[in-house]
Amino acid sequence: MPSRLTRPRLLPWSENGKRVYLRASDPKGVISRLADEMEEAQLGAGQNVLGAARALLDEPDASRPELRFTATRLTECLFDALRVAESRGERLADDEGEGEGEGEEGR
After folding, report:
1. Is 78 helix (H, G, I), strand (E, B) or coil?
2. Residue-wise pLDDT tens for the chain (107 aa)?
3. Torsional class of 7: left (φ above 0), alpha (ψ -120 to 50), beta (otherwise)
4. Closest Cα partner for 11 from 38, 43, 50?
5. What is the pTM of this model?
């Protein structure tokens, strides 16, 4: 079976503010697994921050600095979640493209 060539994977970290990509034929390689773990950690952090933000918004006496801090953390988490979604969407498109020509015709 020939090695699977796909477009480079967008990784969940950056280098000097620039996107980092991985070109690998093995989606279970060390860097791919590390990226998977980091994506899961980023999404988990987003859930935690969202929970804290909801609690803070229920506080009528929340201070402006508290709200600003929370908005900053939410912005960071949204950035991470969108990058994860973009990366996974690209990989999903690659996986769907592999099945073309196999199975049902005229899809």
Report:
1. helix
2. 445 556 899 999 999 999 999 998 788 899 999 999 999 999 999 999 999 999 999 999 999 999 999 999 999 999 999 999 999 999 888 777 665 555 444 43
3. beta
4. 38
5. 0.79
